Each structure stands twice: as structure tokens, then as C-alpha cells.
UniProtKB/TrEMBL annotation, chain A:
This is All trans-polyprenyl-diphosphate synthase PDSS1. It is found in: Mitochondrion. Keywords: Isoprene biosynthesis, Lipid metabolism, Magnesium, Metal-binding, Mitochondrion, Transferase. The gene is pdss1. The lineage of its organism: Eukaryota, Metazoa, Chordata, Craniata, Vertebrata. Heterotetramer composed of 2 PDSS1/DPS1 and 2 PDSS2/DLP1 subunits.
From TrEMBL, chain B:
PANTHER family: ALL TRANS-POLYPRENYL-DIPHOSPHATE SYNTHASE PDSS2 (PTHR12001:SF55), GERANYLGERANYL PYROPHOSPHATE SYNTHASE (PTHR12001). Pfam families: polyprenyl_synt (PF00348). GO terms for molecular function: prenyltransferase activity. Belongs to the FPP/GGPP synthase family. GO terms for biological process: isoprenoid biosynthetic process; ubiquinone biosynthetic process. This is Prenyl (decaprenyl) diphosphate synthase, subunit 2. The keyword Transferase applies.
């Protein structure tokens, strides 16, 4: 299932010695842009699996790599935005800006938290633990993507945009699965703050926190079963397995540099992107029987999800403590080497030993932090996130135009420019 | 390959000798119980849960096993639970799965569903029912692990280094989650959303049961209790009965047996679990063991009956009398107090009641080897 981006990784691990790694990415970026530009004029959808990487020969024959790169440099935020516009200009008036995705999704999400709380059918103290994070203060980014994707897919499939009941349920379930995993993650990481409030484990203790997470998961699983579609159940059960496997991957680190990058991206897919990708796929299954459409939905979710996490990893280095609602460099303190560190390691091999000992020696966190800021690890991770967003847009462009589709395109830009 | 592994595992646990971390069925009644169970295992073909083994042998859990070694010498409960995986697999871990398999076999092949083929059955059990039995075991094991999460704030330095406990918690969360995730994907593969819903609701029941099992333990200290036997049964059903009852029902659903069979299977699972729990709660009170009486939970059924019989006031007096100067409970004194009243006999009566209810439920199934085994199991829990 995760093959497509695997092949990206494999390409790195075979082609890339340190200096050429980011170059390969640039090649890839350029290729993706030129490919989709050429592709957009065509009427038939690509039959090739979504982000199957082109044969490397095609990447190497892309002319004028340098121009392309500098273009990326100078217009990195405009690039993503202008291209989709140009692709839809025939359908949308040039002055019609895509709507803000949050605004557009709002009508389908007004009762989200109330609906979730109704699913958490339990009394007394356990109820307050389960409801704790469904206080309406979360961004609910997953349900937002799910409802926009569902409407875009419904229109693509010649229906009215309105959500099917099952699609609405999937939006809710995605947030429940996400929250259940947060509750467990906070115990695993020993976190005491989340979203500016004390964590469940901090207030009620670890044992109850774990049980609350388990309860939310069981309620999500019941809601999922009630949709009554076996394929949908399988697709979302996969998410639960991916979340755990991703968490396990975080325990270990790889000695070899390329292995490490592959490991990091696979972990990122499992821990973050799988939920978004498979939720998108699940809503597509309910409205359309075409596997290619399922794949588009999946690929959009996967690429946006990975980009989202890459940006998150960047923000861990660049954002102040107050903005993220958690102390910065939290990942380093947990012993985790994320994108910026892995890139920085190419410039500062001294980081290698620190990564291997999970920044456990005194002063490691501060030194690693300095190295990362001195390197271009942050920029390179950001470029990588852009690459994933471009791929997400390319996938989505295969759907029939709709306000929701364009909002999802706009969302990729917001993912990249967010600062918290 | 699996057989070889199983042999290795069993060799390991037998060589551990008498270490019993979690066994509910204690040594006082081994001959009868072991015979009933091993006879029953022969009936269902292969009792070993392949899926549990797959999980136990996975990269993820062998990774955990490596880490758990670091916990040796600490007091983290995960260590005992991990020992229980091996030792207890015979008595308890496999018990739930075994009953699901026996019921599946006792109910026989489907009469209605055309997509279920009799030739797919192994020893009279559909593959999906075998998978369900394994999923039941996975869920049960996952919660054995999650039950043992330690509250770090209640941990004092004298108990040992906090770091060990944090690490143990991390491992316990991850391995429990891993088992649960495998149960979820396994459930999805059954291709029956009714079963997914039923078993998911059992997970919710189990969580509630364990949640309040913990909180009632905490209340023991503060002595604020209004426990009565009806509440005890309700609570025990959630923590010890719902999973088996609903799994039994689901096994019928998988073979497309009618609502009535489903109801009876549920009933068997429910009453058997309650009887089972009563039996194990009664062990310290019926054993005529020499030497030190083992400690027992103050929410054990005989104690709850006793509290109901003597009333709050006298119970508090008895508790005080049994409290030593160092604020420790003298369990032998308390045991004598409970034994002097009718708490024990009431609990025995209740145990027999549930055993009989389970027997009654199973009578509607056609007479067979599997049904006899289920009857024997139901009778065994009423023997002391």
C-alpha cells in the first residue's frame, strides 16, 4: 500500500550520496511540475499508480535543472498556488479565489464534537476523560480534509456534493482515532501539556489515560462497524495497525544514513499520513467503485499527511514554545531524529553519534539544535514538504473541479506556510 | 514450525516450575480442571492460537521482549504479565479461545448461509470462528498488559527508580496497543460488520470494567463503600464476562446461526465467566491450606457478601480490628471474620447458580462431544 513513496526512498538510497540527496529531490520536484503541467491538458486520467516515480532516466533528462531550482527558491510559496490556478482557469473565473478550507468545511463540522461525545457512551469519571480533548478547541484538521475530500469526490462521481451518512461518520472516526493515539502518545512520551492544557495522564494518571484511549478507540471501532461496509472497516483498521507500528519504529534508529531516511519517512507515513490517506480512501469507497479514484484520494491524503508532519518537524526547531503549545525541540528531547536533523547530519557528521545515542548525553540536545540551525536542514525539510504537496496537488487535479477540490489544493499551501 | 515453537514455549514455561503470576485457577483443584481443559482441547483439533503466536513472534514484540529484560529486578507489573504469557497460556489465556471453539463446534455447520462451505471446516469449526477465538485471546491479553500500567505519581523513590517505571509503562502501552491493533485488523478480516461491532462493544465493556475495578480498589483505602452483590455482578460482567459472552455470540453469528442460538451462546459465556470469577474469588476462603493465608481483594465476592450481611458499621469495626499497628491488614484475622458469617456460603451458592445457568444454556445445542466438554467446564467451576 505504501509502495509509491517507498520507491522514492529507494531511489534515494540507491542514488544518493550525501551531496546529491537534495539534488535528487530538486530533480524530482522539477519533474513533478513539468509532468503535471503536461499532464493537465490531457483528458484521460493517468492509469499509472499515483505517485509511482518516473524512471530515473526521465528525471535526468529534464532540461535546465538549475533554472527550475532557482525558481523553486524564489517563488516557493507562490509556485504551489499559481499552478493549480492555472490548471483550473478554464473552469473558474480568474478572480475567484479558492475558498478557505476551514470556512468551506465548517457546515459539515458544526456538530462534530457533539456527535463524537454521543458515541462515547459511558458514564461517570471515564466519560470526562474521554470527552477531555473533544472540547472544540482542536483544529479538527483530519475531519476537515475528510469532508472536503468526500464532497469533492461526490461531485466527481456525478452526485450532489452533500455528504453521505457514512462519510460523515468517517470524518468523526478519523478525529476519534487521532485523539485516542494522542492520549497514548502522551503517556509514552511522558508529556504533561497538550494544546495548552494538562494532559490526561497528568491529571488522572497513566493507567486511566491508557484505558480512556482504549475506550475512545473501541467507540470509534463501533461507529466504523455501523457504517456496514467491510472494505471501509478494513481500510481504517489498517490505520490502527500503522499507528502502532509507526510508534514502534520510533523506538529504533538505523545506523546507515540512507536507511535512516527511509525509516523516518516510513515512520512518518504510518504515524501521521496513514490516517489521513486511509480516511480519504474510505470516503471514496462509499461513493465510487473505481479503484483509480480510491487511489487519488489515498495519494492526496498520504502526500498531504507526510508534508504536514515534515512541517511539524520543522516547526519543532523554528517555532517558539508558546506557539506550538509545547516546548520546542521536543523531538530532540525525546531522542527522535527528524528530517531537519537527518539533513543536517550530512553537513555535520558529528551528529551521527548523537543520533545513535538518541541525544542522551549531556548537552546533546543543545549541540544538535545548534548544528541543525547552522545547517540548511530546515530548508531542505521544507523543500521536501513542498515536494509532497506538489504531488498531492497533482493527484487532486485529476478530480473534476469543485470548490471543495480547490480548497484542498489551497490547504496544501496552508500546510506549508503555517507557523503553528 | 508453529508446533515447534509451541513446544519450545511450553518447555520454557514448565521449566519455570511453580511460578504463577496470573493464574486464577489455583493449585487446589488442578487435577479436575486440567483434565477437563485438556480433554476439551482434543475436541477442537488444534487449540493453539496461531494469531497470538504470530504476534508474540513478531518483530515488534520480540523488540519489546528485548527491552523487557531491562525490567528484570524492577517492580513493573509488565514483567509478571510477560511471564504470564508463557506460563498462563494453558490455563487462562487460551481458555476463552477454547470455549469459543467448543461452542462453534457444538452449534455445528450453518444451515442457511450458502457462502459457508462445510468442507472448509476443520474439526467441525469454520476458519472464521478460529480467527475469532484468536482475536478474543488477543484482546484479553492486551488488557492484561494495559491493566498493569503504573501511575507514576503514586510511585515513590523507595519503590525503585522512576525511570524503570516510565520505561515499563512505555513497553506496556506499546505492546498492549500492538495486540489490540492486531485484533482490530483480524476483526476486519472476518468480513462481518455485526461481529466487528459486537466485539468492539466488548472492548468498551472491558475498559469500563477495568477502569472501575481500579477505582474500587482505590476506595478500599478510603473505606467509602456502598458495594452490594448486584453491583459486584454488574461490574464483574464488564471486566470478566462481556468479552467471552459477546465472542460466543459472535461465533454463532459467523456461522449464521439464528438469534436464539446467539442468545444462548451469549448466556453460556456470561454465566460461565461469572461462575469462573466467583470460583477464583472463593479460593482463599475454601482452601484448607497450612501456613500463611494469602491476601485477597476486599472486593472479592465473599467479602462483598459479608459486608452486605454484617452491614457497614460492623464491617468497619472488623477492618479496624484486623489492622495492625503498622497499618497493615492482617488477612488471617479478616479471613476468619468473613468465614464466621454466611458470606462464603452465599458466594458458593451464587457460583453454583451461574454454573447451572451456563449448563442450562448449553442444553439447547444438540448432544455432542463438544457439548459434553462445555458441560464439564461449567460443572468444574462449581467444584471446590
Amino acid at each position: 500500500m505504501a509502495t509509491p513513496w517507498w520507491s522514492v526512498c529507494r531511489r534515494w538510497s540507491t542514488n544518493c550520496t550525501s551531496p546529491s540527496l537534495i539534488e535528487t529531490l530538486w530533480h524530482f520536484n522539477c519533474r513533478a511540475v513539468s509532468y503535471s503541467a503536461a499532464h493537465l491538458g490531457q483528458t484521460s486520467r493517468s492509469s499509472r499508480p499515483g505517485n509511482e516515480v518516473q524512471p530515473s532516466s526521465s528525471a535526468q533528462t529534464i532540461p535546465n535543472t538549475l533554472t527550475c531550482t532557482s525558481f523553486l527558491f524564489r517563488h516557493k510559496s507562490r509556485l504551489l498556488y499559481s499552478r493549480p490556478q492555472s490548471c483550473c482557469c478554464r473552469k473558474i473565473h480568474s478572480d475567484a479565489k479558492p475558498k478557505d478550507p476551514f470556512t468551506l468545511a465548517q457546515r459539515d463540522l458544526t456538530s462534530l464534537y457533539d456527535d463524537i461525545k454521543k458515541e462515547l457512551f459511558v458514564s461517570k469519571e471515564l466519560k470526562s476523560l474521554c470527552d477531555y480533548y473533544f472540547d472544540g478547541k482542536g483544529k479538527a484538521i483530519r475531519p476537515m480534509i475528510v469532508v472536503l475530500m468526500a464532497r469533492a469526490l461526490n461531485i466527481h462521481s456525478n452526485r450532489a456534493g452533500d455528504l453521505l451518512p457514512g462519510q460523515r461518520a468517517i470524518a468523526m472516526i478519523s478525529e476519534m482515532i487521532h485523539t485516542a493515539s494522542l492520549v497514548h502518545d502522551d503517556v509514552i512520551d511522558g508529556s504533561d501539556k497538550r494544546r495548552g492544557k494538562r494532559t490526561i495522564n497528568e491529571v488522572w494518571g497513566e493507567r486511566k489515560a491508557i484505558l480512556a484511549g482504549d475506550f475512545i478507540l473501541s467507540a470509534a471501532s463501533m461507529a466504523l462497524a455501523r457504517i456496514g461496509n467491510n472494505t471501509v472497516v478494513k481500510v481504517l483498521s489498517q490505520v490502527i495497525e500503522d499507528l502502532v507500528r509507526g510508534e514502534f519504529m520510533q523506538l529504533g534508529s538505523k545506523e546507515n544514513e540512507n536507511e535512516r531516511f527511509k525509516h523516518y519517512l516510513e515512520k512518518t507515513f504510518k504515524k501521521t499520513a496513514s490516517l489521513i490517506a486511509n480516511s480519504c480512501k474510505a470516503v471514496s469507497i462509499l461513493v465510487n467503485s473505481d479503484p483509480e479514484v480510491h487511489e487519488i484520494a489515498f495519494q492526496y491524503g498520504k502526500n498531504v499527511g507526510i508534508a504536514f508532519q515534515l512541517v511539524d518537524d520543522v516547526l519543532d526547531f523554528t517555532s517558539g514554545a508558546s506557539q506550538m503549545g509545547k516546548p520546542t525541540a521536543a523531538d530532540l528531547k525525546l531522542g527522535l531524529a527528524t528530517g531537519p536533523v537527518l539533513f543536517a547530519c550530512q553537513q555535520f557528521p558529528e551528529l551521527h553519534a548523537m543520533i545513535m545515542r538518541r541525544f542522551s548525553s549531556k548537552g546533546d540536545v543543545d549541540r544538535a539544535w545548534q548544528y541543525v540551525l547552522q545547517s540548511d536542514g530546515v530548508q531542505q525539510t521544507t523543500y521536501l514538504a513542498q515536494r509532497y504537496c506538489q504531488e498531492a496537488i497533482r493527484q487532486l487535479s485529476m478530480l473534476r473541479p469543485s470548490a471543495e477540490r480547490d480548497a484542498l489544493i489551497r490547504l496544501t499551501e496552508m500546510v506549508l506556510t503555517r507557523d503553528k | 514450525m508453529f508446533t515447534a515453537v509451541r513446544l519450545r514455549l511450553s518447555h520454557k514455561f514448565w521449566s519455570r516450575g511453580g511460578h504463577r503470576a496470573l493464574s486464577l485457577f489455583s493449585s487446589s483443584e488442578p487435577s479436575n480442571w486440567s483434565k477437563v481443559v485438556s480433554d476439551a482441547e482434543k475436541i477442537v483439533g488444534y487449540p493453539t492460537s496461531f494469531m497470538s503466536l504470530r504476534c508474540l513472534l513478531s518483530d515488534e514484540l520480540s523488540n519489546v521482549a528485548m527491552h523487557v529484560r531491562k525490567l528484570v529486578g524492577t517492580q513493573h507489573p509488565l514483567l509478571n504479565t510477560a511471564r504470564g504469557f508463557v506460563y498462563d497460556s494453558r490455563n487462562n489465556l487460551q481458555m476463552r479461545g477454547l470455549i469459543v471453539l467448543l461452542l462453534s463446534k457444538a452449534a455445528g455447520p450453518s444451515h442457511t448461509a450458502s457462502d459457508l462451505l462445510a468442507q472448509d471446516m476443520v474439526s467441525g469449526i469454520y476458519p472464521s470462528q478460529r480467527n475469532l477465538a484468536e482475536i478474543t485471546e488477543l484482546i484479553h491479553t492486551a488488557f492484561l498488559v494495559h491493566r498493569g500500567i503504573v501511575d507514576l505519581k503514586e510511585w515513590t523513590i523507595s519503590d525503585g527508580p522512576l525511570k524503570d517505571m516510565q520505561f515499563g509503562n512505555k513497553m506496556a502501552v506499546l505492546s498492549g496497543d500492538f495486540l489490540l491493533a492486531n485484533a482490530c485488523t483480524g476483526l476486519a478480516q472476518l468480513n462481518n460488520t455485526k461481529v466487528v461491532e459486537l466485539i468492539s462493544s466488548a472492548i468498551g465493556d472491558l475498559v469500563q470494567g477495568i477502569y472501575y475495578e481500579n477505582s474500587s480498589n482505590a476506595e478500599e483505602n478510603s473505606l467509602t463503600d456502598g458495594v452490594n452483590i448486584a453491583a459486584w455482578e454488574e461490574q464483574t460482567f464488564l471486566s470478566h464476562g462481556a468479552l467471552l459472552a459477546k465472542s460466543c455470540q459472535a461465533a454463532m453469528e459467523l456461522a449464521k446461526h439464528d438469534k436464539e442460538s446467539q442468545r444462548l451462546a451469549y448466556k453460556y459465556g456470561k454465566h460461565l465467566s461469572l461462575g469462573h470469577k466467583l470460583n477464583s474469588d472463593l479460593q482463599p476462603f475454601v482452601k484448607s491450606s497450612m501456613g500463611e493465608p494469602s491476601s485477597f481483594s476486599l472486593s472479592a465476592a465473599p467479602v462483598v457478601f459479608h459486608r452486605q450481611i454484617v452491614g457497614q458499621e460492623r464491617w468497619h469495626q472488623q477492618l479496624q480490628q484486623a489492622t495492625t499497628l503498622r497499618k497493615q491488614l492482617d488477612y488471617s484475622k479478616l479471613l476468619a471474620a468473613v468465614k464466621s458469617e454466611k458470606g462464603v456460603s452465599s458466594a458458593v451458592d451464587l457460583c453454583c447458580y451461574h454454573g447451572n445457568k451456563a449448563l442450562e444454556a448449553i442444553q439447547a445445542f444438540p448432544s455432542s462431544e463438544a457439548r459434553s466438554a462445555l458441560e464439564n467446564i461449567a460443572s468444574a467451576i462449581t467444584k471446590f
